[in-house]
Amino acid sequence: EVQLVESGGGLVQPGGSLRLSCAASGFTFGNYAMSWVRQAPGKGLEWVSGISGSRGDTYYGDSVRGRFTISRDNSKNTLYLEMNSLRAEDTAKYYCAKGYRWSYLFDSWGQGTLVTVSS
Amino acid sequence: DIQLTQSPSFLSASVGDRVTITCRASQGISNYLAWYQQKPGKAPKLLIYAASTLQSGVPSRFSGSGSGTEFTLTISSLQPEDFASYYCQQLNSHLPTFGQGTRLEIK
User: Fold this and answer.
1) What is the structure's pLDDT at B92?
2) A46–B96 C-beta distance less than 8 A
3) Does any CB of chain B come closer than 8 Å to the CB of residue A11?
């Protein structure tokens, strides 16, 4: 059974940093693209960033490019999201999601971790 | 960026009703479209991909159609567990985007 467990969320001041992790199990992690998708309170879904399986090619949404960095450690079956220069509008639940057939088709999601940016 | 516009944003219906949600893309995306269902406090669940392929385990009352710029999700006979939010997503580029969502509520 595929399991994705996010951690690292919390309250951070504007301009601060946070690192999210997503521990994966139940599948061959290195074979699949992974992404972070966020959802602000009461709002819709927004793709944040993605990373390919073996080569580790990275892609970012316009709203986070230059501030967030996605990475993965295939030996630890873990996905990361380093978030810098955080803004109030980054407040959201952050989900990690596993690619399926196509890199950005998500067949498995974690339960999410909440990031709150506020002074 | 490819924009997706869902309609309606809110839908009130009864158990047994047939409902259709539309998703329009700002440019052609072939069949690179997926539909997700999300219930309050839960992660999204993949329902349909490649515009019309039902994900394993999803009831056959769900169906999808379309190609290019216009797509539809149809639920043939609403069940109580179908009341949720639905999102379309395009996968045509390295900048995937979601529609703004359709909230389906019980009348």
Assistant:
1) 87
2) no
3) no
Q: A115 by DSSP, 3-state: which?
A: strand
| Nearest residue, CB atoms, A105 vs list B38, B91, B94 | B91
Local confidence band at B18 (pLDDT 50, 70, 90 cut-offs): very high
Least confident of A106-110, B55-59, B90-94: B90-94
pLDDT at B24 over 90: yes
Q: Does A29 touch chain B (CB under 8 A)?
A: no
Is some CB atom of chain A closer than 8 A to the CB atom of B87?
Answer: yes
CB B27 within 8 A of CB B2: yes
A106 — contact with chain B (CB < 8 Å)?
yes
Q: What is the structure's pLDDT at B93?
A: 84
The total number of residues shown for chain B amounts to 107
DSSP B63-107: EEEEETTEEEEEESS--GGG-SEEEEEE-SSSS-EE---EEEEE-
Asked whether the beta carbons of residue A107 and residue B32 sit closer than 8 angstroms, the reply is no
